[in-house]
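Deadline looming. Please check this record:
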Amino acid sequence: MEQVVLYDQGKNGFGESGLSSNLEEMEKGELKNLKFAYNEKYITPVKYGFAVVFSILKYFRRVLIVKGRRL
């Protein structure tokens, strides 16, 4: 697959350094934002449920990618 996005100095988009290096805290923040949107009635309960599941799946995917890079 051809790489079409170049990150700063060849760095990966997440999991290396900087704000995105702490995947667990990044996920907690995303879930907190979704809960806020739900509590403020910006999204329905169904959308909230799907968004939470999707977010958790993305988190596990990122963890697997980062672990795969270290092998």
Observations:
- The chain is about 60% helix and 0% strand.
- Helices lie at 23-39, 45-70.
- The first helix runs from residue 23 to 39.
